[in-house]
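Quick one: co-fold with pyridoxal-5'-phosphate.
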Amino acid sequence: MAKKYNAINLSQGFPNFEPDQRLLDLVSKALNEGHNQYAHMAGLPELREVIANKISELHNRHYNPESEITVTIGASQAIFTAVTAFIGNGDEVIVFKPAYDCYEPAIEVNRGIPVYVQLNDDDFTINWEEFRSKISSRTRMVIINTPHNPSGTMLSKEDMLELQKSLKGTNIIVVSDEVYEHIVFDGNEHQSASRFDDLASRSFICASFGKTFHVTGWKVGYCAAPTELMNEFRKTHQFNVFCVDHPVQYALATYLKDPAHYLGLGRFYQEKRDFFLSALKGSRFTMVPSQGTYFQLLGYSNITNESDVEFAKRLIIEHKLASIPISVFNLGARDNKVLRFCFAKTQETLEKATVILNNF
Ligand SMILES: Cc1ncc(COP(=O)(O)O)c(C=O)c1O
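Sure, here it is.
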């Protein structure tokens, strides 16, 4: 609809600015130096090595690059492959709603059963008692996502400890979607599942270079998990994907060596979030600052009673601004009159969007 009505598009999560020229140059160099044939099945060894170093620096967990890290076609493929490797007919997978949209299709196509836990309405926190009540003898997996799309909230250390405690003694696997790991604000610390011994022993950590380096169209990410889990993962990966874009992996292996390239990301996006929020300060929208991700939720119940889908459509058609209604990610399309806006956009785009929103 954004295209059809020529609207400013703050709906899907991708930047409308270019990545670092140095990264583009590294890809050109790799292309011209002849890295144009199949890469290693599990990923370029040099890249896996830097990924292992990064995780070890940030989360104090050592993954063996040989056997515990696999480069994937974005986090989506890592998630799909982990689900496919472990979920079969009748296996239950716990999913927190609202949830990013790639989890349930992966579960269902493998004949698994999604079991839902709705996050609390006001602050998107998890009711851990309710979570525990959903665990059954058929529960095979839990999918978590922090920082969280669409809410922009983050799981705290206490949340991760609750999860760890709840799963202790079970053989339940965790798929931890951490694609926004470096986009965190206000001094918040990303609590990777890899930080917690028992969680790490049962988790697939799924990450995305697309999100981290402003190259969502390259679709390169990775997955880290203990050897026994990764062995199973690779049995599916080998015959579905075999290997990921070789020249891009060369470029990333060099670019990732400089931590400044990802550690500065929170500050970069926080400026955008702060601009967006301060420009809307006098508006009729309600907002709680996003803690992480490049999404900001705006509540509009002071403005209209329309459903979020209706209001989002009207915003596009009449006001030329696209957002995403949160009900589409919710259980039973629950509608709390909230829209999601992506602020991974240039200053100019954000300014235009806030002018439109301030007119309500
Ligand atoms: C929460 C979440 N997980 C996974 C993905 C997909 O990541 P990738 O593009 O690396 O497959 C996205 C993309 O929007 C996302 O928001």
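If it helps, The pocket of pyridoxal-5'-phosphate is lined by residues 13, 74-76, 100, 145, 149, 177, 179, 208, 210, 216, 219, 221 (CB under 6 Å).
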